[in-house]
Design a protein that fits this description.
The protein is 69% helix and 2% strand. It is an all-alpha fold and 504 residues long. It has two domains: 203 residues, no CATH class; 200 residues, no CATH class. The longest helix is centred in the C-terminal third of the chain and has 29 residues.
């Protein structure tokens, strides 16, 4: 695929997905979602046409046809299910969020969110079916559908600004792939993450997040997380991981043993457990019965025991941030702030005085952070060289290797989201990123300290989002994690729920 066609395709796909969250429900929005999803695999295949994985598939067309047929059957079945039982769409999206499927071809492998892509495709097919059928029948405006629980038409306050800012972020990222030092990486980020996640956000805008649905979401994530802990416990006891050779080798040289359960990375596993723990804690704090309170307390204990063997410092920090947010909402933000400040000062003193040295050097800190100090300073240097436009979307690794040439640090993938955005997208991207964070926090937190009927659900979403945000400051992956987009969609919808409904 020529560079111009690939760049144009990326822009069209991003624009179509952005239109999906800006347009009201109807045939035009459904067509935009369909266009975005159709371009997604076409662009990936075109970009990787000469990659050994694609070449291997091209040489085995029977496998390709069989895979396409199976995917079509699954999408069709999901479309029928979601068309008949609409509540199952958000539950299915939540259920498949953690799962990646390892695909092997041409001697290489990739872990892709295939289950999530199939569910999103089924949701889009169901939306097409609904919208075009209603249009032929001369139905009313779908924006006034009784099952609609938010979206661009009914949003008020800061919630109405969230979809436009998300659309700007997606389109801007696509535009900045045009001059990227690694166009292929930027294209993959757009197609594998931004486009399908934006479509998922659009689908979740149509959901009415009532108490019954939220209860089932809590049950799904709670049961899933408990099962993941069980798998991680088996790994810890048997001292054997299911996958990720890098973690398996590192466990052989460390005095501790890290587990990853069904996740590829222990830090991502820890992130998921931390977020579910925050959500379960919110439900426990606003529990209406003792049975529910003790059941959730038991779940939290299980999740905590599962989080410990991940040895993910970023996940522990994320959990503490989420719990602090819940404490501020449930009791007092002043007391919570005071405790956080005292705890931060105490932690700094412990770090400075550990080992009796009384000081800490940049080299020592860089070693303790597994080379992330060099990545942060290198990212700042890259930003200083191109402060306005950056090196282009997806370019951090290529630009770091080219301009930093740090032989002592083989890791070249940024682990700090603001640094990544600054180096890749410059001040332009930083402004969009900061605007999104501000509007998101404003939307999710507005009115929470008032007598809101949905305070429990909204508190859970806000605290989980804060925890995720803190985790991405130490491990990146803000836009590449579908949980970010789900939290924003749910939080924006809850923020626009009329007071007469009670999804708490």
């Amino acid at each position: 695929m020529s560079g111009f066609l690939a760049g144009a395709g990326v822009l069209i796909a991003a624009a179509a997905s952005a239109a999906a969250i800006l347009l009201p429900p109807g045939r035009l929005r459904s067509a935009a979602m369909l266009l975005a999803l159709v371009l997604f695999p076409v662009l990936i295949v075109g970009d990787q046409w000469h990659n050994p994985q694609i070449v291997d598939l091209r040489n085995h067309t029977d496998r390709l046809i069989a895979a396409g047929a199976v995917a079509a059957v699954i999408v069709g079945a999901l479309a029928y299910i979601f068309r008949r039982w609409r509540t199952l769409l958000p539950l299915a999206i939540v259920f498949v969020l953690p799962f990646r499927v390892p695909l092997h071809a041409g001697g290489e492998s990739a872990n892709l969110l295939v289950p999530l892509y199939l569910v999103i495709a089924g949701g889009v097919a169901a939306a097409l079916w609904r919208d075009w059928t209603a249009a032929r029948a001369g139905g009313a405006d779908l924006g006034d559908h009784p099952d609609r629980g938010g979206g661009t038409k009914s949003a008020t306050g800061p919630a109405r600004w969230l979809p436009p800012i998300l659309a700007v972020v997606v389109v801007l990222y696509a535009v900045q792939t045009w001059y990227s030092a690694d166009f292929s990486k930027g294209l993959q980020n757009v197609c594998f993450f931004l486009v399908p996640f934006t479509v998922a956000f659009a689908l979740l805008q149509d959901v009415r997040w009532d108490r019954r649905l939220l209860k089932w979401v809590l049950i799904v994530v709670g049961v899933e997380a408990a099962l993941f802990v069980l798998i991680g416990s088996v790994e810890y006891v048997t001292r054997g991981l299911f996958w990720n050779d890098q973690i398996i080798r590192s466990n052989e040289f460390h005095t501790y043993f890290r587990v990853n359960s069904v996740f590829w990375d222990p830090n991502i596993y820890g992130r998921y457990l931390a977020l579910v723990t925050v959500i379960a804690t919110a439900a426990m704090l606003w529990a209406r019965t003792r049975n529910v309170f003790w059941l959730l307390s038991g779940l939290i204990l299980v999740l905590w025991l599962g989080l410990v063997p991940t040895f993910s410092q970023s996940s522990f920090l994320a959990l503490l941030a989420g719990l602090a947010m819940l404490a501020a909402i449930r009791w007092s933000w002043r007391w919570t702030l005071g405790v956080v400040v005292v705890g931060a000062i105490g932690a700094i003193l412990v770090v400075l005085l550990v080992g009796g040295s009384g000081k800490i050097t940049p080299d020592r800190l860089n070693v303790d952070l597994s080379g992330r100090g060099s990545l942060i300073s290198g990212g700042v240097d890259l930003f200083g060289e191109r402060p306005i436009e950056g090196y282009g979307s997806g370019s951090f690794q290529a630009a770091y290797r080219e301009h930093r040439k740090d032989e002592n640090n083989p890791v070249t993938v940024s682990h700090t989201e603001p640094v990544t955005v600054a180096a890749e997208q410059g001040l332009i991207g930083l402004i969009a990123y900061a605007a999104l964070i501000v509007v998101a926090l404003w939307t999710l937190g507005r009115g929470l300290w008032d007598a809101s009927p949905s305070v429990a659900a909204r508190a859970a979403v806000l605290a989980a989002f804060v925890a995720l945000l803190v985790h991405t400051l130490a491990y990146a992956g803000f836009f590449e994690d579908p949980i970010t987009w789900v939290l924003l969609a749910v939080g924006a919808s809850l923020a626009t729920v009329p007071a007469v409904r009670e999804p708490a």
